[in-house]
Fold:
Amino acid sequence: MRISHQQVESRREFFRATARYGLLALVSVAASLAARPRTPGGQRCVNQGICSGCGIFPSCGLPQALSAKRFKEKG
Ligand code: SF4
Structure:
C-alpha cells in the first residue's frame, strides 16, 4: 500500500487543524473562567436575593446582604 503525497498533506493538515482548534478551545475556556464575576469568598446567593428570612444572612458577605445589614444597623 502506497500513501500518496496528497494523503500525507491532508493528514498533516488535519493534525494542524486539530491542534489549532484545540488550543483555541482551551484559550476560550480560560478566558471565560477569568471573566467570571467573583463574589467574596466564592459565595453564591441561595435565596434569590431575598435576605429577610434567609438562613445564612448573619454570615453572608454578598453585596445584597451587606446592604441589608447596613440598613438594619441604621434602624
Ligand atoms: S443573605 Fe441575602 S444575599 Fe446572602 S444568600 Fe441569603 S438572600 Fe442571598
Notes: The chain has a mean pLDDT of 89. The CA atoms of residues 17 and 23 lie 10 Å apart.
